[in-house]
Fold each of these.
Amino acid sequence: MPVVHVSPAAAPPVLAPVPPPGMPVLSIDHLSFTYPDGHPALHGISLHVKRGEKIALVGPNGAGKSTLMLHLNGILRGQGSILVAGLPVNRANLPLIRAKVGLVFQNPDDQLFSPTVFEDVAFGPLHMGYPEADVRRRVEKALHQVGMQGYLERLSHHLSVGEKKRIAIATVLSMEPEILVLDEPTAGLDPRARRSLIALLRSLSLTMLVSTHDMRLVKDLFFRMVIFDEGRIVADGPTDMLLEDAALLEAHGLEQP
Amino acid sequence: MRADLFDRYQARASLVHALDPRAKVVMAVLFILSNVLLPDGAWAAFLISWGAILGISLLARLGPGFVVNRSVVALPFVLAAVSAIFSVPGRPVAALELGAWRLLVTEAGLIRFASIVVRSWLSVQIAILLTATTHFPDLLHALRHLYVPKMVVAVVAFMYRYLFVLADESTRLLRARDARSPRPEGGGGLSAAWRARVAGNMVGQLFLRSFERSDRVYSAMLARGYTGQLLTLNPHAMQAKDWLALLLLALFSVSIQVFSRL
């Protein structure tokens, strides 16, 4: 995004209090949400995620997975409570929450809105208030994590879909979030790009919440699976166990890999 | 559609490319201003200006014909100045009868029209030179440095970023329409009015899709901490060569103004 000189008197970096150990990194309790047009999207969702867990959210289209994700960083606000690393998601905490929850949208074109890759990846830390040297360091680190080191000065609209998806993840990693939330990361990717994205996700040690239809991805990478249907959590347990229950999967629009 | 269809930047290793973008923007504006202030009929001065543009073009390793080729697209807009032929008082050269009106073509009017054409053409060439030698993101930075309001620059940046996406969407809409537009044998088909309505609906669709996309982009910006203040980093610093180039151009503009009035 175009440029304003970062003034030295700018706001100090947004830093959150350190959460006590053992506390779940994400606690959702009885979350309900209805769209303004009256369409009910979520009914009493409760979910607790420990640090380092990788969870797959699966379910048919329209089940409420994306709606839930938009609640995690306060873009949508419903009834019930959401705690991110002990912090309640409310208006006052939004800047802190948005630094802790890295949300990667489905369409990378929506996520990459700056003229160059550098500016996109720098957007997060810059708005958190970090000084220039720190921002540059974070950008380099994030691009290194996704394996796109040489892409600093490239224009976002020159990249292929696979490259865009990786940069989109980098834009969020530069904020050093506590939890990475991805909406359909492998949708629309060819097998090679898909494999390299899976390798990338495997290499990241963050807590992860991924919404996907790709059951093979779920089997490969996620030890815990949560099945959604019509705004409710229908099942929540170890992936291996749930994947063996063909009837359960069929009933909720899924299939065995 | 190729991603670089709208990119005007030509990457070269030249002196002009290496100048600070701020200096280039100011020089371009100064040059255009100088052209505009030249009096009507100052053909020698126009020629010298064009020579300068050619010179800069060669210095930027773009070749002599590059800028001229691209400038042709702007010529039709000059037709807006046609009224100048009839409105300047002076020695009449010919007369035109249009219904009840009698329009007088004057010599001074013709000279003015020709001068406007030449001035516009030169200004367009300068703009093309600027965009060909300056990376677009740098151009945006330069505008910000020059105190162009944040919102204006932001609008330009978003437009540039999503122009290609918009073009893609409209291509898709057009393809969908073409796939459902058979023509019966022997010609015929529906009226132009109906087709115009369909085109109108498509434009509406495009607007709606863009509007919804803007919502998603806004969510993405919120998700990365946007609170209403747009921030980025400033990597540019003016060096001696930038000031020198600026000075040279200022001197050139002043001397050509003096020369044209001798």
Amino acid sequence: MSKTHPPHREGEEKHPVRQYLKDLPKVNAPWYFEAKLQQRLQRRSTAGFSGLVGLWRPIPAYAYSVVAVLVLGVVGYYAFLSTDPSQNEILETPSPGSNETRESPKPRASSPAPPLTPQVMPPQPEPAIQQIVISSGQRGPSVPGTQQVIESPALDSQMHEIQMHRMTPSDSIVEIMLDESTKVEATTIHILPSTIPPAPVSVDTVIPDPDTLNKKHEDSAASVKAVADSAKEEPDK
Amino acid sequence: MLANLTKLTDEELIAEFQRDNEQAFTVLVGKYKDPLTNFVFRFMGDWNDCDDVVQETFVRVFRNKHSYKPVAKFSTWLYTIATNLAKTQLRKRKLRSLLSLGTNKADDHELVLDIPDEHSKTDSRVEASFKQEHIQRALETLSVKYREVVVMRDVQDLSYEEIAAITGLNLGTVKSRINRARTQLQGLLRDIWND
């Protein structure tokens, strides 16, 4: 470190940085190095899990992670196998005022075909709030989570209106438009108090519109009258 | 027996050790503990880490003695192990400093300054010590890939071929990295030359 001259670029040996680095004092191992190493070698032979079970080679660290992942995989696989995917769960909020017992959800595959028409309940003396269990329109085995429970007074009144308009309740399907993009099919109706505020629901039915019927009747009456008029005119001629 | 072993080359010593002659290992440790400590200390800049890495290097040699094949020099194999361990230790230290809120660099510097020195320091010694400290700090500011080659070449005086074998790089890459490392160090140590 006595040389602090400016650099001379005459080759690698004269490179100032090389000179500086070469002149750095040598750092030696401490006096206890070999004793510590000996201690470390002896400790290593009996340390850890491999020392406990008498393995000559130490177990690599990643082996524990691999074993953990394998165990998780096996447990998860058997947990998946033991779960019945056909179970449908209907999430219902318990109604404080209702003493009515509810039916537990049944697997759709094992139950008979659901009725296509809603079960019309007789008019209740007190304002009845209906709960409609609605399943999505997809076919095939039902998947948990596809059924929804809707409790809405507005829906109740609209359903009641539908029931009033229905002449033959067994031959049509009530289609309820929850929004413009989703069509759902009503399958069962339970009586439950409402807890959800009224949602904007529009109801379409397959019942013919009275105005359309009236117009058709008027058109046919007009055509009949025209035919009758023409028939009256012919004898005159 | 030990006197006979000291006359053997490194490759013959490791071959003896592979035949379960632990005296050969002792000779190898005695021969390489100082140069390896010097290399690792200049590379890492921390005395505690350096001691651990050198110890672990010899433990690995002891455990994996049969992994050595006489296609390369023993010193190349030894420096490769030490370099890999030192890099791993540097990564761990970096991760520790990232995770630990209380760690700051001043603590690390204190560890290096605590190397015992029994001699009383005159002014020239203090000045030399300051310059050495400055050079060591400049080395530590280099990136690892430049630092390892420049320490091997300029501190340990290894040949380009040996450095290429240890690092697994091409000879041209080694030379260019050494050159860039020196250029960076030259810029960092400019104030020393101005003095």
Amino acid sequence: MSDIALDKPLDSFDQQVAPATLVRGYWQSVFYRLRHDPVTLFFAAIVMLIVLAAIFAPLVAPFDPYKESVISRLKPFGWKDYLLGSDELGRDMLSRLIYGGRVSLLMGIVPVLIASLVGGLLGVVGGFVGGRVNTVIMRAMDVFYAFPSVLLAVAVAGAMGGGMGNGMLALTLVFIPPMCRVAETATTQVRALDYIEAARATGAGTILVIRYHVLGNVLGPVFIYASSLVSVSILLASGLSFLGLGVRPPTADWGLMLSTLRQSIYVVPFVCALPGAAIFVTSISFNLVSDGLRAAMDVRM
Amino acid sequence: MALAAASNPRLDPPDRAGPAQPLLIARDLKKHFPVKGARGKAVQAVDGVSFTVRKGETLGIVGESGCGKSTLARLLLHLVSPDAGELVFDGDAVGVAGGIALNALRRQVQIVFQDSYSSLNPRMPVRDSVAFGPFIQGRKKAEARDIARAILGKVGLDANLFGPRYPHELSGGQKQRVNIARALATDPRMVILDEPVSALDKSVEAQVLNLLRALKRQLNLTYVFISHDLNVVRYISDRVLVMYLGRVVELGPVDAIFEQPLHPYTRALLASHPSMDPARRIEEPPISGDPPNPIDPPSGCRFRTRCPCAEPVCESTVPVLGEWLDMQSHVAACHMQDPKSGHSKAGEA
Amino acid sequence: MIFYILRRILYAIPIAFGVSVVCFSLVYIAPGDPLQTVMPPDATAETIEIVKHAYGFDKPIPIQYLIWLGHVLTGNFGMSISTRRPVILEVTDALANTSLLALFAVPLSFSIGYAMGAIAGCFPGRWLDRLVTGTAVVGVSLPNYWLGIVLVVFFAVQLALLPATGMGPSGSTNFHILEWSCAKYLVLPVFTLAMIPIGILARTTRAAVAEVRSQDFVQTLRAKGLSEWAVIRHVLKNSLPQVMAVMGLQFGYLLGGSILVETVFTWPGSGFLLSKAIINRDVPVLQGTILTLSLIFVATNLVVDLLQSLVDPRIRRA
């Protein structure tokens, strides 16, 4: 083996092995995969539809969701102009379903966002600092893990006396521990890799290392997990409303509507099942979109 | 602070103490990792290691896996803080008042790791990974990118072609080139290479080794080259340090170590190396068994449990690394090298 | 092994304490004076004074916790505000009825879920895979209280085959599982409760089995000349620990999910008790029920961990 003469350019070794692949960034390849996944695209469209309908409810809804009518109580599908029938106070079901999406989506998304922020932060700090700090954080989380999630949500919301704010608080509390665990696991894995040491070797402090080298790699798992929690959160939130721990009547909310209409299943059984169907469709759509995102973002490198 | 120092090179002269001052002196470095669940027990990863690195040389460090080579590499950069011992970088003690600050040390010493996969951030284009060092040390983003482009070219990667790629789009050799570029981007004086070619194919290994040699000459670098591969160490090193269970067993110029090894462990290592000559094929392994547990290492000489020449004195007394006079000294920590030790074969070798 | 069991039990104790602290604090996160939440609204000033002293509401909170813990450990969970009965009696009565549901729902869902997952994992074919994945997604997205209502609409309202709610005319005291007149009240709640864990369990089992099947030792078994059935037995045995962990979690889900399902079917179990307690703002009952159910969940996880260590020796060493 002879030494390479220095007057020759050093870059003469490797050019021949430069592969001719299209260079694509991470997000580009994620979107590329998503574009070729019809199931995810379909359910993403449904999610968009539900979200848009909820946002623009006053424009979309055919009737006032709070306008009661004694003569048109509990009517079946297609009675007069009531496309999806009417409820026990004669309010238009379709309009109430559209308006109900607002509360259900809000209670599905807000707790997950807050929990991702709080739990994610705790997890990243615990995972990166390690040692006693991490032990304390994770043991505290273990205590909340000891409750089945529905029980914890019902306990907290029940003790605080229900209401939308309390319900969201209860759900946030339920989601912080698993979120924290996901972030902690991802951080601990990343922390053990050599590139973190290499970054520290350039003199970067903890905050810079976390910002440039840890967050990017933890955000993915946290985001994927958070997206899967949205559907759980929607289910739990409507469960709380069903038990009377969510919004108060007459606010339109799917869980609450299901609960009040339950008395009338002998009269208009299919109308009474509608709010549950709305919960189911929303929840399964979020679930499948989350699955698709997980598959698309899992670009193993 | 980092910004001021980087923009004013006179605050940071390249050669402070003159060519005779060793670039790095390590004195009695110790690192014990406490064992979970066993109170008072510790893995003695590095246990009293001393050596010097001359300006412009390549010091090879060899030893079996688990002998503390990688811990030593991390100690040299204070990535792991030592339990005891001191480091002197170009005449300045590291990490003590009046000495050189840790950040300043890290500007002048860089490290390349073995696993070219886990040593690059998978979510960053390699260009940004290379630019991160200069950026952290106070360069503007655009400046850091320019440095990254230049240095990528220097390690044989076209910055336009490879810069925007992610690590998973590169081969092992290319990734290791990026790692070398990343280490060089902060313009260090010394690079610690922790098994830089062990994960590579033989053909790529030769390319990377030659690249390292060329870069060293071009950029006036000093290397500490850690490897378990004797061939590689012989090829690249000026001097060699042999480690066994966290201690130095032998230290000397490369030819002396390979032609006239003093320590039985070094001899065994060289003998266990398969020969190209069928007539010299080894039937019996010259060294048997695994190294003892570093949690509970043997008393006295740590090699005595596997040494063919072990005697009672080896159990009772810790052998010292012989008298070290100058950079050409060849010394070994063995009682047989010390006529006064009481070993029956003392002074024979 | 004994060392592992002891260590695992020791680890469960602080968790149980943590759970008790959370349950204790429920009284304090309730709006208003904590005393009001444990007293009937029409209590006389005299009784309030007595209770205040007995429960130590005039003392600092850590002391109150210790007093409360002492009461709980001796089985004194306080009095129900709405029925004036001891909470412990309410909880044990309800728990007996919930166990009746679980007794059928757990084996039903676990066996169907496991069988589906194991078959899909052992014979990866397109339609079975899709069926399992599909069932799983539907399972996790389905609000079980809605499923209950839909089942009632079909089987009780439309077909009039099964009763919609309750435990039958004789109530819980004279409930005989062997008589159809009583047992028919079990069918819909059990089925509703069992429905959701099936999907999750099928998905986990399928993943676990597929993962084990891809390991090298399975190739070795085949190379040794074992029949495919014998190979499958090895694979299933090796995938068991992972499946058991999920079963433990799903048991907890059944406990939690029973709140909604029992409410739909007015089945007088612990979940129905909870939902009544919520409506009546009966905090002592709420607290007692949550504490009991959570401790059962902690104990279940402990048992699952120990069983897992029996199946998988690696866990003992970790």
